[in-house]
Amino acid sequence: MRSDELDDGKLVLSDLVNRVLDVGVVITGHVMISIADIDLVSLDLRLLITSIETAAQKEFGVSQPAHADAPVLPPSAGK
Amino acid sequence: MPTHLYCLLPPGSSVAPPASVRAIPLRAGVAWVRDTDSPRLSRDARDAARATVEHDRVVSAALSAGVTPVPASLADPYADDADLKSDVDVHADNIRLAYAPLAGMVEMTVIVAVHDEAPPADAPNRGRAYLEQLKNLPARAAEAAARVEHGLPQITDVRRRAEGGRVAISHLVPRTAEQTYREAAAGMAGDGYRIVVDGPRAPYSFALFAPRRGLITDMWLGETNLVADRHDSGDLSRKNFG
Question: Is the pTM of this model over 0.80?
Answer without folding.
Answer: no
